[in-house]
Amino acid sequence: MKKQTFFADFVPVRYNGEKNSGQERCGWKNRQTERKLLPKRQMYIFNHLYEELPPERLGKAMRLNPAYLSRLCKKETGISLSAYIRREKVEEAKRLLELGEHSLSEICSLLGWSDQSHFSQVFKTWAGVTPGAYRKRIPKKN
What we know:
- The protein is 58% helix and 10% strand.
- Helix 2 crosses helix 3 and helix 4 crosses helix 6.
- 15% of the residues are buried.
């Protein structure tokens, strides 16, 4: 059974017509389409955490303007797309620290940070402690 679409699922959008025409046209943007982008964006980021992931690359992969994608991210999560990517990388770094199989410099390199001190700053911003302090909090496995 096909899902029924209601008028309330669409929002009016203004956009410019031809270049320098000065005319504006009205259109409709589907809110359901925007909702479908969130899981796709999350999955793409999750699958590419170990690579450099600028918003431009994500936009290209999703066939959307990076600025538009960032606005959608801000609207859905409350943080910018770049901040969202950093937060996800910090969460992955936490998991790697808990495993205890990699050194801090290896984790930093794996997740695409070239500067360990910058990585530590970003980690502290999101986790509240430095990566070394976070690792010390983890109970030792026997």
